[in-house]
Amino acid sequence: MPVYPAEPFRIKVIEPIRRTTYAERQQLLQQAGYNLFKLRAEDIYIDLLTDSGTTAMSDHQWGGIMQGDESYAGARSFFNLEAAVKAISGFKHFVPTHQGRAAENILCTLLVKPGDSIPSNSHFDTTGANIRAAGGNPIDLVIDEAKDPAKPHPFKGNMDIDKLVSFIEQTGIESIPFGMLTVTNNTVGGQPVSMANVKAVSEVYRRYGIPFFIDACRYAENAYFIKLREEGYASKTTLEIAQEMFSLSDGCTMSAKKDALANIGGLLCMNDDALFERTKQALILREGFPTYGGLAGRDLEAMARGLHEGLDEDYLAYRLAQTAYLGEGLLAAGVPIVQPPGGHAIYVDAGRFLPHIPVEQFPGQALVIEMYRAGGVRAVELGSVAFAHPDPHTGETVHSALELVRLAIPRRVYTQAHIDYVIETLAEIAARKDALKGVRIVQQPELLRHFTAEFAIVA
Ligand SMILES: Cc1ncc(COP(=O)(O)O)c(C=O)c1O
Q: How confident is the model over 47-105, as pLDDT tens digits?
């Protein structure tokens, strides 16, 4: 087993969590229609549903919450946030938003016309949905290595540059109002993007005159991966690496619920003066005045402090090693995962783990149900429950390329004992996995069914 990194913090406030009994969980699962989104959070022992907004804030951030300036316009907390955003990103303009998807929504509403295409390595689902809502097409051009879960690659989140160039040539720049790059690449397993790749993507977008926006939710984890893995970066600080990355782009969207270590918040940053004028108008319509953008002054203060704390290298070394510890522990227990471990989550390859359960019976959903039943651990299915869709031409169901289960790790929340408990729960399931049964859907909505569908265990 790898060594668990000692936490670079000590615990000042605790939140009790409750261990339910097996019989209780069995009943709670039945009541929830075997959909873990329908459970009450207080009935969960270890919650790995998401790393978004689930961070434990520091005493420095909580101190800032008390000092938040709630003035409608020109609040001190806004200027503190501005100083942090400028120091780290260097962008000329920014607005706060209530979360990442609000920044995406404003950008897409202002720039995307029906029929446009927006390339990226992989768009996150909210980004893809915002592009579609404006009539555009989100295009994913990640490297082929990302499609093989067992294949290790140091920067598996990279964009395929050849595919990007041919896509631009075929589509024409008139239909590409901007291009994106997601760091780290959540959709393929929280995998990092190298600086060489950011440079190459930037060079291509600039050559064609296409504005370049980074989806920067996990900019700090990505910077630390670059420091660890890319030649020439070992002696640079994560702040310098982040600054270099942002300098290669024209703007960014960011959910502050990840690496900015806040429970709510987002950012939309840019250099373009004219676009900024339009952004402020759209923000006032949707979110609020440009110095608070849908947030309380205290939230701005927590973000301002979190943006800097998220770049702390002791914290980042611990954070990435904690995720790797979970991944390697699962591999040692015979549980296949997307390799190598990513930044914020481990993705179990449920299709390979439970080969006796056909995709029509959702092996990923079967596994998340069993993780809760066996140990009170909540994870999320990211397979055919979440992603299967009808073929637009034949109407037949197209299943997800991979049947994954994501174990996302909230920042600074769980200790080694908690992570060991998750590994032990999965090791115990691995020992009897052939007896696990698939599920069928008994009720589902038309869209985004994984949030509310109900299931039954296949007899
Ligand atoms: C890569 C990426 N982009 C955008 C978002 C959307 O952010 P938010 O949930 O704050 O709207 C997320 C959230 O998980 C994400 O992971």
A: 999 999 999 999 999 999 999 999 999 999 999 999 999 999 999 999 999 999 999 99
Return the closest-CA partner of residue 259 out of 105, 100, 378: 100
Three-state secondary-structure class, residue 365: helix
Among 366, 320, 387, 415, residue whose Cα is nearest residue 46: 415
Residues within a 6 A CB radius of ligand 1: 52, 99-101, 124, 126-127, 182, 186, 215, 217, 255, 257, 266
The residue nearest atom 15 of ligand 1, judged by CA position, is 124
What DSSP designation does 334 have? T
Q: Please enumerate, as own/partner, the contacts of 70-74 that have beta carbons within 8 Å and a separation of 24 or more.
A: 70/296, 70/297, 70/298, 71/297, 72/289, 72/292, 73/289, 73/291, 74/291
Q: Is the bond leading into 340 cis (omega within 30 degrees of zero)?
A: yes
Does the N-terminal peptide bond of residue 97 adopt cis geometry, omega within 30 degrees of 0? no
Residue 390: pLDDT above 80? no
388 or 315: which leads in pLDDT: 315
Q: What angle do CA 310, 130, 53 make, to 5 degrees?
A: 30
Mean pLDDT of 101-111: 97
* Secondary structure class of 311 (helix, strand, coil): coil
pLDDT at 1: 57
Token digits of residue 302 = 């927590």
* Stretch 99-124: mean pLDDT: 97
Longest dimension (CA), the chain: 62
For residue 188, report the distance from its CA to the centre of ligand 1, in Å.
Answer: 14
Ligand 1 center–CA 53 separation, angstroms: 10
